[in-house]
Amino acid sequence: MEIEQLRSSFNAAGQGHLLQFWDTLTDVDKKNLAKELSSINLEDVNSYFKDAEQMLKTVSEKIDDHLRPLSPEVCGSVTRSDPVKLKEYEKLGLTEIGSNRVAVLLLAGGQGTRLGVAYPKGMYNVGLPSGKTLYQIQAERILRLQKLGESVTGKTCCVPWYIMTSEHTKDATETFFRNHNFFGLRPENVILFEQGLLPCLTLDGKIILETPSKVALSPDGNGGLYRALKKQKILEDMERRGIECIHVYCVDNILVKMADPVFIGFCRGKKAECGAKVVEKTIPQEAVGVVCKVNERYQVVEYSEITLSTAEKRGPDGRLVFNGGNICNHFFTLDFLKHVCEKPQESQLKHHVAKKKIPYVDANGKAVKPDTPNGIKMEKFVFDVFQFATDRNFAVWEVIREDEFSPLKNADGAAKDTPTTCRQDLCALHLRYAISAGANFVHADGTPYTTFKGKQPSNNGDCVSTNGLEDIPVCEISPLVSYAGEGLEDLSGRKLQPPVVIEAKADGQGIDVRENVQ
Q1: Using one digit for the tens of pLDDT, what is the confidence trace for 222-250?
Q2: Does residue 56 carry a pLDDT above 90?
Q3: Confidence of residue 58 (pLDDT cuts 50, 70, 90)
Q4: pLDDT band at 459 (very low <50, low <70, confident <90, very high)
Q5: I need a surface site. Which of 180, 181, 226, 407 has the fewest CB within 10 A?
Q6: Is 331 within 8 Å of 102 (Cβ atoms)?
Q7: Which residues fall within 8 angstroms of residue 473, CB to CB, at 6 or more apart?
Q8: What is the pLDDT of residues 361-389, one digit of tens each?
């Protein structure tokens, strides 16, 4: 688009200030700014701001009167299902996986800023004995899952891994995977794509200039997934591969079971097209969103949107009425995604608005870092498509928090969701796997650990202390050995001295147990 056309369009939309420094720019900066401005849909941006204004006016309103709990018909639970039914779900899920009908989709647009690092969260090492990063752990879970699928169908199995990055994480993520040979996955089955960006706006709707030649942009949220899926032809790639089911999750959950066969089987068994995995919310004040109905539509409602009296409501069984804690762990069919990615549906996904301190340049071209919020950032959330599901095609599967949810959000020193808590939770899970397989953990003098069952380890050398309890041994099991506790028969009756690391042998036959790992 020629500069005069740009100037005319932006003046007409009330955004002409974006070209105020044009005559002072270098040719390279002019080219870059023109390209950036040409990519902005002014009609959409102005429409988004009108919606944002309305949302900011109503953000303090509570929605208690419109809430309804989940219908029992759409719900299932790992703790309230009998073992036979769980095995049925698992077999059905593994059949789907082994038939090459399942893909996983990772939401990986976030940097590790709150962790004190400038690289993508997936590259973070929480301090496991093996030194593995989140990306490596997840890649190895896919490799193991493919073998489990092949064992059921007898076919060669591939679970494609789609990774949605952002402007800030794509290059680093791609380089990281290439430098690590995609952790054993075939490169053509690791598909990176980028979420969109939206201009940051002042509180009166003006697009903010970050520098004289650059617009202030921010990622459009994990709900930008749906526009990116269509725009970057990811849906077409899935269809070409014969994918029918997609598991979507966030990068920061170290316990995530990607394409969990039980969850896949539960959703397929109910003929669901949209599903959510949840953990039980037991404390009313816990700041976690819950899956419920609002005006008869499925939705995730944030804790701040309801009163404490509603959050505290309990049913006849003593459990909270609104107890389905959202953990950003979802199931979709390809047909459902194709439907919600179409313009009429995607445009119904409202932007969530946050006031932020956004750096800008003043009228003299001087950089300013504000001390108070001076603008808004807008984003969509991945779960907002629940509104397009119905009782006939929606499913909610409740899992055990200690087995499946431990997010990495904060640096060590914070109260929760730190590298230490993630490391603790993963080692605790692996300890339970090993004990269930018949392993015994012993001290250096051969005396057994006896009082740690059901407790959480906290990595501190070979073991950690809990208040008044015996130290708890550290145990890490490679995902290449076991996806969810299976394949550990060789541990039966063995005495192990922690820290213990259990890896697959180089030839893939059997396991290699390393004790007293330093």
Answers
A1: 999 999 999 999 999 999 999 999 999 99
A2: no
A3: low
A4: very low
A5: 181
A6: no
A7: 431, 441, 449, 452, 457, 462, 463, 496, 498, 499, 500
A8: 999 999 999 999 999 999 999 999 999 99
**Average model confidence (pLDDT) across the chain:** 92
Strand ranges in 115-244 using DSSP code E only, listed in sequence order: 161-165, 190-194, 197-199, 201-202, 209-211, 214-215, 217-219
**Are residues 365 and 277 in contact, defined by beta-carbon separation less than 8 angstroms?**
no
DSSP 159: -
> Nearest Cα to 204, choosing from 68, 345, 15?
15
Is residue 121 within 8 Å of 408, Cβ to Cβ?
A: yes
- Strand ranges (E), 183-244: 190-194, 197-199, 201-202, 209-211, 214-215, 217-219
Q: Report the Cα 72 to chain-centroid distance in Å.
A: 26
- Residue 23 identity: D
**What average pLDDT does the segment 205-209 reach?**
96
* CA distances to 63, 70, 272 from 300, in Å: 12, 11, 18
Helix axes 83-98, 261-269, angle to 10 degrees: 100
β-strand partners of 280: 324
Q: What is the C-alpha R_g of the chain?
A: 25
Q: What is the pLDDT of residue 110?
A: 84
Residue 36 tokens read as 């950036």
Biggest CA-to-CA distance, the chain: 82
Amino acid at 331: F
Q: What confidence tier does 465 reach under pLDDT thresholds 50, 70, 90?
A: very low
| Paired tokens of 438 | 């018949």
What is the pLDDT at residue 354? 86
φ, ψ of residue 192 in degrees (nearest 5): -95, 140
Cβ burial, residue 288 (10 Å; 0-12/13-18/19+): middle
